[in-house]
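Quick note —
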Amino acid sequence: MEISFPWILVVTVVMAMPLSFRIKANQLSYDYYKFSCPNLESVIKSELLGIFLTDATAPAAFLRLMFHDCQVQGCDASILLDSNYLAHSHSSEMKSSRNFGIRKRETISYIKSILEEECPGQVSCADIIVLAAKESVSFSGGPHIEIPLGRKDSRTCSFHEADAKLPSPTITVDEFISIFMSKGMNIEESVSILGAHTLGIGHCFNIVGRLYDPQLGDKMDFGFEASLRLACPTEIPLTNFTFVPNDMTPVIFDNQYYRDIMMGRGLFGIDSSISRDPRTAPFVMRFAMDQNYFFKAFSSAFLKLSSTNVLTDVQGDVRRQCNQVN
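Predicted structure written out below.
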C-alpha cells in the first residue's frame, strides 16, 4: 500500500512567552551552529528523508522519542544512554516500563556519526533528537517550527526518574495540566501538545484497562469500543506488540485526533477526559474546527517543551557517541 504525505506550508510561529521561559530560551540560539556546523539541518533532513520514505511510522517514533527524553530531565539525550556504558548498569531510562516501544534511538546515533564527520565534536545528541522530531512533524503535514539550538548532553540518567516523570496511561486531567504547566505551558498549549497523538499507534496493554475494568469505564463510541475489543480481545494482552492506530490518520499530522475524541473515539483515557473536562473541552473543540489554530498552539507548546530545563554551556557535554558518556 502506498502512502502519500501532504506537504503543507504554514507560517512559522513566534509567540509571546512568559519572562521565565524567555530567559531560559535565551540560553539557546537560532544561529548556534552558524559557524561550527552550518550544514547541520540540511544533513539531518537528507538523512531523515530516506527513512521517512521507507518507514511511514518513523515520524511518530522520532516525535515520541523527543517527548520521552524531554519529559524526564529536560531535552538532554539522557534517553539514549545504554546500561553497558554507565557506572550503575541498571540506571538507563530504557529500563523503565514507560519507555516500552521507544524506537529510533540507533538512528539518532547514526546521524550523530554522520555529523561527526561533517563537524567533529560540535553537535549534541540532544539537539539531533529535537531536530529529528520537528522534521517529523513537518514532513507528516504539520507545522514548520523554528527552534533555538545549543542544548548539551547529560552525563547522567535514571530509570527511577523516568518511572516518576513519564505520564501513565491512566493520568488524570489535573495531573496532565500540572505536568505541562511545569514546562511553562498554559492550558491551551497543554491540550495542543496532546495533539502529537495524531501520529502513531497505541499498544493494547495501555488501553485494556479502559475496556475491561468497570471502575475505569468512561464513555466511548459503541462502534469504536467494539473495534478496540476486537483488536485487544483479552484483559491481559496475548503479546505486548498488539496495537491500534491513535486516530483515523495515524501517519498524517493533522487535527483528526481532536475530531475523533469529540466523537467518543479517544484511544487513551486522557484523550476522552480532555474532551469532557470544562477546562480543556473548549480547546479540543477549537482545535477540531480549526487546524491552523491547532498548528499555531502546538508550535508554541513544542518550542516550550524542547527549550525548558535544558543543559547549556558547561552544564553538559557534547557526547562523542550518543549511547555513552564521554
